[in-house]
Structures are given as structure tokens and as C-alpha cells.
Design a protein that fits this description.
The structure is a homodimer. Helices cover 63% and strands 13% of the residues of chain A. By secondary structure, chain A is α+β, with helices and mostly antiparallel strands. The first copy, chain A, has a single domain, classed as Orthogonal Bundle (Arc Repressor Mutant, subunit A). The model of chain A has no long low-confidence stretch (mean pLDDT 89). Chain A binds a DNA duplex through helix 4.
Chain lengths: 110, 110
DNA sequence: AAATCATTTAACCAAATGGTTGACAAACTC
DNA sequence: GAGTTTGTCAACCATTTGGTTAAATGATTT
């Protein structure tokens, strides 16, 4: 219950922890792309890209669809929501922390 | 340049990809804690917790301070900002995607 | 200064990660 | 149908990860 959402976050954050994968997400955010198209900018093998796609897919961050001989990849951005919500919790903390810092350096003007 | 901020995001997202570490962050968000205090709820060794803290520290998500014989740990929530900013980019995508979905299922009422 | 408490480090282990190359399968093209 | 294109899978490799236990360090107490 709690655990499944924890596993979900594990897989999302893990998927995002690699800069190639984050970059691929940006790539497919602009428009759907084939695997070969996605691989083009990167200096790694197609097989390596295929593995990255599997990681992104298991985090539910992309979807694939067979279109003829091509595999079409598209972003599933809604899957990032749990991560954003998790982070949102800390927003109040960093705001108050930064406010305190500002008061410290500028002198509190009442 | 671009690369150092990528490494930064790598380490932040990696730190967040483990549920014990996310849980520790929540724990220290409420107030400063010592390492032993942090370790108490978890069924792992103190050494393992110490390693988790090192990961969180290298992502700059916590700070430690020696106070007598204790190591006191506190949240540095501002370090989460880059992650939040990275995710913010995708907000527009998931909003438009969810809007489209809603129109699809509810029928577009003008 | 000896004992104890708080924490880190070292050495180890199994599993996962990110990469490779090569074999394979499926769909298109000639 | 033979060959090409598109992509995945299997086997392998080095490194990292998340855990362990045991030894080492640092501060406090007695």
C-alpha cells in the first residue's frame, strides 16, 4: 500500500538519476521519436539506448507503440507527478530557510 | 558547466531513489537529529545508516555538525530545488496531456 | 587511564547498473 | 526470397550499491 507508492517513487527517481535518460526524456518531450532517432545524438550503442528505454518504461515515463518496423516512443509526463508531489512537501522548508537567510544578510526591516 | 549541473542532478535523484533515504529526509525535516536517533526506526545497522547519510550529504541534502560526542544532522532543503526545477519543465506537458484525456472521457463541453 | 557511548571505516558479499559485442527476429525493399 | 533496416536479447565485464560484521576513532564518564 504505502509500499507500492514507495516502489513507484524508487523507480521514477532512479530513472531520473542518469543524465542520458533525462536527456532522452527531453528529446521525446518535443515529439514522438523512433529508437534509432533517439539514439542518434548519443555516443553509445543502440542496445544501451534500448536498455535506457526499458528503465524509463518501467518507471512509466514513456510509452512505446509498434508502427510498422519502427518502435515509436512518446513521453508519459503524468508519471512525473508523484515525484513532483513528493518534492512539493519540502518547498515550505526551503522557503522558510531561504527567508531566514535573507533576513540574516539584509537585516530584518520591519 | 552544463555537465556539473547534470552531475548535481544525478546525485540528487540518486539520493532520492531509495525509500530509506527519502524516509530519513522526512525524519530530519521535522527537527535536527543525531545519527543514532535517525537509525532507530530502521531495521538496518548503524553502519548502513551512516552510508545512507553519506549519500545524502554528497547530494548536499543534509548537513552534519559535530556537537560533543554527537553528530547532529539537519535537512538542507534548498538542495532539492534543482530537482524541482528540472521537473517543473514537464508540468505543462502533463497538464495538456491530462486535459486531453479529460476531454476524451467527458466529452468536450463548450 | 579505563570503560563506555556515538559514529565511521574497512573488508567483504550478492545483486544491480551501464556499458559492450554478437546473434536473432520482424518488417520492409529489391 | 535474399538482403537490409530496426530493434531486442543474451552473455559478458567492470563498477556501484546496499547491506553485513568487526575493528578503529573520538568524546564523555568514572
Amino acid at each position: 500500500m504505502v509500499n507500492s507508492s514507495a516502489l513507484r517513487l524508487d523507480s521514477i527517481f532512479h530513472a531520473l538519476s542518469d543524465s542520458t535518460r533525462r536527456s532522452i526524456l527531453r528529446d521525446v518531450a518535443s515529439r514522438e521519436k523512433t529508437v534509432t532517432e533517439i539514439a542518434r545524438p548519443y555516443a553509445i550503442s543502440l542496445a544501451a539506448v534500448s536498455k535506457h528505454l526499458k528503465v524509463l518504461e518501467s518507471a512509466d515515463l514513456i510509452a512505446r507503440e509498434r508502427r510498422g518496423s519502427f518502435q515509436i516512443v512518446r513521453l508519459k509526463p503524468a508519471a512525473l507527478k508523484p515525484a513532483e508531489q513528493w518534492l512539493a512537501y519540502y518547498e515550505k522548508f526551503w522557503n522558510t530557510q531561504l527567508d531566514a537567510l535573507e533576513r540574516h544578510f539584509q537585516g530584518e526591516k520591519k
